[in-house]
Amino acid sequence: MEAVQFVSAASAFEKVDFQKLQNGSDIRGVAVAGVEGEPVNLTEHVAEAIAAAFAAWLCDRKKSDGSRPLRVSIGHDSRISAQTLQDAVSRGLAGAGFDVIQYGLASTPAMFNSTLTEDEDVFCPVDGSIMITASHLPYNRNGLKFFTNAGGLGKADIKDILERAAIIYDNFSDDALKETELAASAAVRKADYMNIYTANLVEAVRRAAGNIEKPLEGFHIVVDAGNGAGGFFMGKVLEPLGAVTSGSQFLEPDGLFPNHIPNPEDKAAMRAITQAVLENKADLGIIFDTDVDRSAAVDSSGREFNRNRLIALMSAIVLEEHPGTTIVTDSVTSDGLTAFIENKLGGKHHRFKRGYKNVIDEAIRLNFVGEESHLAIETSGHGALKENHWLDDGAYLMVKVLNKLASARVSGSGCGSKVLTDMVDGLEEAEVAVELRLKIDQNHADLKGGSFRGYGEAVLKHLENRVASDSKLKKAPVNYEGVRVSGHGGWFLLRLSLHDPVLPLNIEAPSLEEAVKLGLAVSAAVKEFAALDTSALDKFVRGL
User: Fold this and answer.
1) How far apart, in Å, are the Cα atoms of 122 and each of 118, 230, 451, 489, 526?
2) pLDDT tens, 123-132?
3) What is the DSSP string of 290-315?
4) CB 330 within 8 Å of CB 359
């Protein structure tokens, strides 16, 4: 790791394409040098310009009442570039005349909550909030998420901020940068907001169990934080509730992530928490991603609650509280999940697009037009509840699970994680589930100078036409993304990536033979598109 180095102020003022830093409703970039082929584009001065642009964006929407300047809180996960970027962001905000509240190591959901909390001891509510994180991406990456009390900023907001940042960056001078440094020394304050946030989580579990002080007493629950920001959950949430937490692992913040990627979708990460549960004979295991906006769980037998199974569990919990409500998910959820939600639980499954912000915004829209929805959740583990301000909060999802454990024991309706396992009984799960990535070569002559997006849409349209002429395949009657088709006892979805020149292909089927038949149907339809790399699909259908 000797090659790791930060890009200092001396390398500032290099030309930067700010729009390339946009990743949907987030900002993502390379913040640490040393990885071949990944030049640094999220420098201190770039971060300072982005923060100043956010300040300008916020000023257009919120006016100070005159009693104090506008306030913005800053938190970060465990990444090795976090402190450097926090200081740069602080300078950008302070230079705009803002009060800056640094929370240090924090979770993304806590940062949003700081815009809602009313507590002057921690300078809340703030007018805006910034979380420095790149979720589960490698150690050399970092990024920024932005919040107001209306929620997380959307794609259009991020585009606006980056356009402003580019102008600010181009006008930077040495003298101006020295002034922002002086401004930050006067405007920055520090506060421990995580104590407020975790106290609210503890109170939520106690309330669900009838105001019992230690409703988890006797439960053995292990936590795997993956060396991200989620280690607080053991000592500040589970232990005050009475849980035994021995065997919890990787709680110490370490931005090099030496044990496994902090990602509930990662197979190695899920193996790690499963092993911890089984070795410690625990009742439950809980795992978080780096910034704690995603989570998953494992029962006492080692059965995972992630992806479709986590959605099924959360749907069961929410539908007990709100019978008949609509559950909004992303596009790659299974047919078995739809049957479970609608036939067993009596709810409605609204399958929408990939992207946690898309899913959350769709749930909000449904409520606005009169269709009740209380849960928006992605297979990635991003889950948001109406009762929690539509915030995707991995810790709050796990609090809902803990509530079920505690209340079931109090009512005598069950004990241990079997209560949770029984709640997903009847969920049909495919024997084979794969995701293959078909890449578009943007330099291929077949694109004829057009965009990868236009080319990808042409692939999808051609596939749609081919499916219409195949009696063994049936296109989904309601679908919001790509081409979703049922047949051979399973289904496939081919869609265009939100950001990259890639067509992800999801296939689920009751057997490998049926999955291959679905794969062959796609292969036959797309083979004439020369710029499409189908090698992953070719290997799958050949059994390699």
Assistant:
1) 9, 21, 48, 56, 57
2) 999 999 999 9
3) TTSSBEEEEETTS-EE-HHHHHHHHH
4) yes
Task: Provide CB contacts within 8 A for 370, sequence distance 6+.
Answer: none
Residue 233 tokens read as 């959950």
Q: Do residues 433 and 421 make contact, with C-beta atoms less than 8 angstroms apart?
A: no
Say which residue the tokens 């990535």 belong to: 437
Give the separation between CA 360 and CA 518, rounded to whole angstroms. Answer: 31
Query: Looking at the predicted structure, is the pLDDT value of residue 188 above 90?
Result: yes
Length of the chain: 544
Residue 492 neighbours by CB under 8 Å, 6+ apart: 484, 485, 505, 506, 507, 508, 518, 519, 521, 522
- Report d(CA 544, CA 541) in Å as an integer: 8
Closest residue by Cα to residue 105 from 322, 306, 253, 314: 253
CB 521 within 8 A of CB 487: yes
User: For residue range 234-249, what is the model confidence (pLDDT) as tens digits?
Assistant: 999 999 999 999 999 9
Q: Name the residue type at position 158.
A: I
- Residue 239 contacts residue 214 (beta carbons within 8 Å): no
Count Cβ atoms below 10 Å from residue 65 Cβ, excluding itself: 7
DSSP 217: T
Would you say 164 and 24 are in contact if contact means Cβ atoms under 8 Å apart? no
Angle among Cα 169, 30, 49 to the nearest 5 degrees reads: 20
Among residues 419, 385, 205, the alpha carbon closest in space to that of 297 is found at 419
With a CB cutoff of 8 Å and minimum separation 6, the contacts of 431 are 509, 510, 511, 512
User: Number of H helices and number of E strands within the chain?
Assistant: 16, 25
pLDDT in tens, 433-482: 999 999 999 999 999 888 999 999 999 999 999 999 999 999 999 999 99
What is the b/e burial string over 187-205, where b = at least 16 CB atoms within 10 angstroms of the residue's CB?
bbeebebbebbbeebbebb
Angle between helices 512-526 and 452-468 (to 10 degrees): 120
